[in-house]
Amino acid sequence: MNSLLYKPSGWGALKPTSMTRTLVLLAGLLLLLFTANGALAHAVAEGDKGYIQEISGVHLLSFAYLGAKHMATGYDHILFLLGVIFFLYRMKQIALYVTLFAVGHSTTMLLGVYFNVGINSFLIDAIIGLSVVYKALDNMGAYQRWLGFQPNTKAATLIFGLFHGFGLSTKIIEYNISPDGLVPNLLAFNVGVEIGQLLALGAILIVMGYWRRSRGFWKHAYTANVAMMCAGFILVGMQLTGYFVS
């Protein structure tokens, strides 16, 4: 089996234990998604957008800060990371999966901007929403039931990391970043992205650590992944709606 996830033998039989809890979780995720402004997704905040368009030359600290801010506040990234580490307990396993995601994210972000390879932002963000859905279904054991085998979780993490990177590179291209100092600025931005990822991951691990030690973890884990899956579908719907009406 390719998966490193730990699930008890009875996991496939678990079901959401409370409709009320599910609705509360979904309401919270809906509130987050519909009240979030452009700074919380792949879109760059308007103030940051203006700054990127106006400056030229090497600005390492500024771009590192922008990268960290994007990653630490990007709910699509955070939801996917949450799904990736949901059933990972060993730090070695967590490091492996997070590294695969970082490699994919960094590769397409850097190459996409450098070679000016853009993808429609609505479509790429819809795929990113699907990555959240995919991971939630994986955590729920859906593919083992439907397909009879476990898809390679490491390959999926790397592949979806590539799409997450294209999501950001597409936005950066739209903001016409200056070619003067482009490479060092992009590298600094990428360093900031990794710092932001570590900060977000650290917060997730702290919360998950406390939750896993409680009696309610296995009781509510299925419900949490149902809520995550629904949030992913909402993201997909929002982006496809934007694509068709734009």
Please, could you describe this protein's structure?
It is a single chain. By secondary structure, this protein is an all-alpha fold. It has helices at 19-35, 46-54, 60-73, 75-85, 91-114, 121-139, 142-147, 153-174, 182-212, 217-245.
Chart the SSEs and their pairings.
Layout lengths: L18 H17 L10 H9 L5 H14 L1 H11 L5 H24 L6 H19 L2 H6 L5 H22 L7 H31 L4 H29 L1
Helix pairs in contact: 1-10, 3-9, 4-6, 4-9, 5-8, 5-9, 6-8, 6-10
Major sheet attributes: none
Mean pLDDT: 83
Strand-residue proportion: under 5%
Kindly state the number of beta strands.
Answer: 0
- Global Rg: 18 Å
Span between termini: 44 Å
| Oligomerization category of the chains in this entry | single chain
Structural class, judged by helices and strands? Answer: mainly alpha
Total of helices: 10
From the spread of the alpha carbons, the general shape counts as globular
Question: What percent of residues adopt helix (DSSP H or I)?
Answer: over 70%
Order of helices and strands: HHHHHHHHHH
Provide the low-confidence segments as ranges.
1-17, 36-41
Could you provide a short overview of the structure?
The protein is mostly helical. Helix content is 74%, strand content 0%. The longest helix is centred in the last third of the chain and has 31 residues.
Task: Describe the structure using short key phrases.
single chain, 246 residues, mainly alpha, 0% strand, disordered N terminus
